[in-house]
Amino acid sequence: MPIYHPSICTQRDPKLLVGCGAHILDLQTVVKDGILGGGGGGVIAADGGAQKLDLKEMIEELESSIEVPSVFICPISLEPMQDPVTLCSGQTYERSNILKWFSLGHLTCPTTMQELWDDSVTPNRTLHQLIHTWFSQKYLALKKRSEDVQGRVLELLDSLKKVKGQARVQSLKDLRHVVTAHSSAKKMVVDNGGVALISSLLGSFTSHAVGSEGVGILVNLDLNSELKKNLIQPTRISLIADILNEGSIETKINCTKFIKMLTEGDASTIENVSSLSLLVGLLRMVKDQRHPNGVTAALALLRTLCSNESIRKQLVGIGAVAKLGGALSGLNAESLESALYILDVLSSLPEGRLALKNCEDTVRNLVKLLMKVSEICTRFALSILWAVFKLAPEECSVLAVEAGLAAKLLLVIQSGFNPELKQRSAELLKLCSLNYPDSIFISKCKLTRTIQ
Asked: The U-box domain covers which part of the protein (predicted)?
């Protein structure tokens, strides 16, 4: 049971020290001194003149989203008090907490640790009223904001049915801001036909400004499979691919995440959302490493798309192997794993292996990654190198050994990696040694320098 030791009680204004044994004069004084923040006219009356809100429910709904004044906190549980009681020492606690303290055999005040001459507790009605009033204000303000948000969503959806041109762009922009700022707005858009309305605005003749804002809204919504299915139409997907290629980095990321969202849970949709234009746009995002979030989003979608064989062939055909291989050295750990996964999948194709063999930079970068990032990245790198070695063992082994592969393989074999990974390393090491006499190969390993 946590014990609260207030170190600043004696430094506070005595009018506010409810939890430290002092006396609050009245609610008006507390409002004046700032705890309630004024504006008490909308608070539920404490005299029964209006329906009183349930304090427990308000605390449960508000506690995680607001900072509760310390004078409302029980020193034992460090949670807001619902039934505050005061001891003879002048300290105030939540009734259930202090009674539990007494039931454990303690006859002291938990805060001051002074011995109590009387274990009776006195309800602190002034503090209870203050706590209830404060939480009521916050609760009613929250509900009002929620109602305002809902009203704003309905207003903007209604506006979108009527306006055109720049006014439509502005309404979409306003709706996107509301949706991203308030979680309740997302459900309002879905429940009031907003998805179908926004989808109807995305077509062959839609301006990129409208499309960008529309996708910015849709990507933030929780869409069921039926809504996703209705969005996967050729004209809409084509528009999104165009926007992805020409929009701002924020728009590119939104389009990328939106297409990935459409494919989740239904692999059959992958071919429907993919196009050559989309693949080219994603590879451009990977190349532009000024925006790491864009790189991560693009690689995540490419990882999903390359589960389809025809898309894998398209990726190889547009030079994805060289582009991904050249980008490896500048990627963070998360992006690196996705890039290596994609290259590993592409290496399962004959044309993918050929592209890897012809890309010397990719081979060198793969060697550098061994034992450098994580076990899973090492596994992917070894798998890719193995695929290339099988295609052209003599040519690739010379290049890889010159890049330091033999030394890295020895380190993998001596590491704590799984046996399968060690076995693959031993097989690769054997292939590497075939082109060299023993004495020369040992010198090529450069093991001492690698360990250092």
From this structure: 67-141
- Let me know how many helices (H) and strands (E) the chain has, helices first: 25, 3
Residues pairing with 93 in the sheet:
85
Q: Please indicate, yes or no, whether residues 63 and 177 belong to a single structural domain of this protein.
A: no
Prediction pTM value: 0.66
Indicate whether 172 and 138 sit together in one domain: no
User: Do residues 24 and 60 both lie within one domain?
Assistant: yes
pLDDT of residue 438: 62
Judge whether 343 and 356 are in contact, CB under 8 Å: yes
Name every residue whose Cβ is closer than 8 Å to that of residue 144 and which is 6 or more positions away in sequence: none
How far apart (Å, rounded) are the C-alpha atoms in residues 353 and 344? Answer: 10
Distance CA 233, CA 213 (A): 18
Contacts of 54 (CB under 8 A, 6+ apart): none
> Are both 27 and 114 inside the same structural domain?
yes
pLDDT digits (tens, 9 = 90+) for 82-121: 999 999 888 999 999 999 999 998 889 998 898 988 888 9
Q: Are residues 137 and 166 in the same domain?
A: no
C-alpha 368/C-alpha 362 separation (Å) is 10
Domain membership flag for residue 404: no
For residue 16, what is the enclosing H or E element? Answer: none
DSSP character string of 249-293: HHHHHHHHHHHHHHHTT-GGGHHHH--HHHHHHHHHHHH-TT-HH
To which H or E segment does residue 117 belong? none
Domain count, the chain: 2
**Whole-number Å distance between alpha carbons of 194 and 426:** 59
| Residue 242's CATH number | 1.20.930
User: Is residue 116 in a domain?
Assistant: yes
Exposed/middle/buried for 15, CB within 10 Å: 0-12, 13-18, 19+?
middle
Task: Judge whether 436 lies within some domain.
Answer: no
Cα 23 from Cα 127, distance rounded (Å): 9
Q: How far apart are CA 214 and CA 176, in angstroms?
A: 8
Cα–Cα distance between 208 and 203 in angstroms, integer?
10
Shared domain check, 189 and 130: no
Q: What are the pLDDT digits (tens) for 236-267?
A: 999 999 999 998 999 999 999 999 999 987 88
Same domain for 89 and 48?
Answer: yes
Residue 411 in domain: no
Higher pLDDT, 198 or 375: 198
Shared domain check, 166 and 251: yes
Cα–Cα distance between 369 and 377 in angstroms, integer? 7
Range of the domain at 207: 161-258
Contact 22, 10 (CB under 8 A): no
